[in-house]
Amino acid sequence: MFFERHEGGERAVLIHLEGLDEQSREDPDEFIELVSSAGAEQVGLLTVSRFHPSPRFLVGPGKVDEIKALVDANEGELVIFNHTLSPSQERNLESVLKCRVLDRTGLILDIFAQRARTHEGKLQVELAQLDHLSTRLVRGWTHLERQKGGIGLRGPGETQLETDRRLLRARIKQITKRLEKVRGQREQARRGRQRAEIPVVSLVGYTNAGKSTLFNTLTESTVYAADQLFATLDPTLRRIELAELGPVILADTVGFIRHLPHKLVEAFRATLEESSRADLLLHVIDAADAERDSHIEQVNLVLHEIGASELPTLEVYNKIDLLPAIEPHIQRDEEGVPVRVWVSAQNNQGLDLVNQAIAERLGHDILQTTVLIEHDQARLRAQFYQVGAVLAEHNNDDGRQQLDLRLPRADFNRLIKREGLEPEHFLSQHVLQ
């Protein structure tokens, strides 16, 4: 964009680093899946064990020679590290390997750039890319001379670099301003849902856990779903009707991943706020994944970072069709509250149990009662019908209507107060059961 680097390509040599501490170590299988999701062709893999970080290349000079030989032998066009590289390490490696070098953060950014569909999603990805690029801008103009004293020695390098930095800062400021506007629009829509008192259920989980497949099945939608990492970037909201509860907003969000780059968390904060403001989180888990406990931990870390760790959570163990002898069922705690549901979204198994568990978790304050509507309360009767709260209606001999109601207590209180009555007084005078 603003500076020259070695041209990238699709033929990639992968470098996986072992020997790191447990918190920093990455999953090699996930790394290969990330590379595949980015559309690269793996032509070589080198695992570096007994790893001691080198400030110049990250790996030792001997390993750099091995990587160079692997690139030359396989006609590699790109080297991807399953680790974070500093700008100077990227520059040093590229100067030796004579090809493009990408680290884990750059790889994830590239996948996000491919997946973004909406204008907002593209802005968020560009912001993260520019933020990442700003730390690497200095390397691009090393082929130009620095300004020096003397006739004929005044090179344009630093002047051009400063120009590019200003352009970069201006673009980042412009995108940030647009995303602030998007955040304001989201907040306005969120307040509208709160005024309507429609609960929001947000799907969260590790990438490729099956969130979008579950979302499509529950909402009868056609959101893009694929067996690849980060298939979903742009948040999607749908309204569904639960027989035991009424209307609910279901939100599908971006998947999380181990060591999700902080730049991405910041750039996607407007999107992730859909999760942090939800009434209930559906934590979708790949039940058949050998790393599922580690993935659960990583999701909880991101939820903590976006301020959603204290929200009520219902775990949905998906893909039970890949496990032997597991039937769809609900697990409950000591008080009988649903805490975990085992399903297969792909095979449409157990999804009625998901709806049931959501209704139970959100409907803990559901009021089911029978009231008498006076002759002068026809508007109140119409409002009960409007929110779908009337189960049955009977006409009494005195001309009053007897309504069997089921609705959230908050909705009942709101409708009664709108008529200038106190809910407690109305119930005490009108409840027949």
Question: Topology of this protein?
Answer:
Layout: E1 11-17, H1 28-37, E2 41-48, H2 61-74, E3 78-81, H3 87-97, E4 100-102, H4 104-115, H5 119-134, H6 157-195, E5 200-205, H7 211-219, E6 236-242, E7 246-252, H8 262-267, H9 269-276, E8 280-286, H10 292-305, E9 313-318, E10 329-332, E11 338-342, H11 351-362, E12 366-373, H12 378-386, E13 390-395, E14 401-408, H13 409-418, H14 423-430
Parallel strand pairs: 1-2, 1-3, 3-4, 5-7, 5-8, 8-9, 9-11
Antiparallel strand pairs: 6-7, 10-11, 12-14, 13-14
Helix pairs in contact: 1-4, 4-5, 5-6
Family: Belongs to the TRAFAC class OBG-HflX-like GTPase superfamily. HflX GTPase family.
Main location: cytoplasm
Coiled coil: 165-192
